[in-house]
């Protein structure tokens, strides 16, 4: 007796989705530029909010009612630092551009009537009212005026420091170039001498290079204390960026 063997149709594997291939593609230059612009705007806004919060907190703790004066002094101090470097590879007059930046960020506050609000709240005397609830409300309004005034000065100082960061771009470009050249030389020496490769070092150094570029600017924009010369910050972080780029280039494993 003969039996007929039943055969099952071959299994068909689903074709990979087009979205998977697209997800593996690197971002184009336009997407990278948009990402940089959005990141810069977010860093500037967060630095202003963080700097204002720290100054207001210090106004009630270790500065004891001198938060507005400290914020005003920080603006004048950063202008003083810029006067020591009146020219840059980016612009001919660094102080004028920084003043334009400070004026630009102060305009929305004037449009919203912040100066008049500050003047009105400064004239409020909470202790002349006998009602405790009214006295507390007056103190809150008076404190709101000080917070707004602090926010204006911190915004201006953030704009000035953003201008200083813009002037420092040639220094970071030179640091990246020096680090890249040094790293590629060390990479060739490692290849010809049979040195060991490390993907771990490569990926971490690449991450640190980007972190030094962004975190340094963000920390400087939000720094609430005075007496910090930005030239030292540029020197420190440019050196760190050069070292990270050099390490990244020296451990790059693909063919050039």
TrEMBL record:
InterPro entries given in the database record: DtrJ-like (IPR022266)
Keyword Disulfide bond: no
Keywords, comma-separated and alphabetical: Membrane, Transmembrane, Transmembrane helix
Stored NCBIfam families: conj_TIGR03747
Bilayer-spanning residue ranges: 30-50, 159-181, 208-225, 231-252
Keyword Membrane: yes
Protein name: TIGR03747 family integrating conjugative element membrane protein
Region described as Disordered: spans on this chain: 1-23
């Amino acid at each position: 007796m003969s039996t007929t063997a039943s055969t099952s149709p071959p299994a068909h594997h689903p074709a990979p989705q087009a979205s998977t291939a697209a997800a593996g593609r690197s971002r184009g230059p336009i997407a990278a530029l948009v990402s940089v612009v959005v990141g810069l705007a977010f860093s500037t806004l967060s630095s202003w909010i963080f700097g204002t919060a720290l100054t207001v907190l210090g106004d009630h703790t270790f500065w004891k009612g001198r938060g507005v004066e400290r914020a005003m002094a920080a603006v004048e101090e950063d202008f003083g630092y810029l006067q020591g470097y009146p020219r840059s590879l980016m612009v001919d007059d660094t102080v004028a551009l920084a003043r334009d930046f400070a004026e630009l960020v102060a305009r929305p506050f004037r449009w919203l009537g912040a100066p008049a609000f500050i003047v009105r709240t400064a004239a409020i005397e909470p202790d002349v009212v006998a009602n405790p609830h009214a006295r507390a409300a007056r103190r809150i309004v008076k404190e709101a005026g000080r917070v707004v005034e602090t926010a204006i000065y911190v915004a201006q100082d953030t704009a000035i420091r953003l201008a200083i960061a813009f002037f420092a771009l040639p220094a970071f470009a030179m640091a990246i170039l020096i680090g890249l050249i040094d790293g590629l030389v060390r990479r060739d020496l490692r290849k010809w001498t049979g040195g060991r490769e490390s993907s771990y070092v490569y990926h971490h150094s690449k991450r640190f290079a980007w972190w030094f570029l962004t975190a340094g600017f963000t920390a400087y924009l939000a720094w609430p204390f005075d007496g910090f010369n930005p030239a030292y910050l540029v020197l420190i972080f440019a050196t760190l960026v050069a070292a990270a780029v050099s390490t990244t280039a020296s451990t790059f494993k693909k063919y050039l």
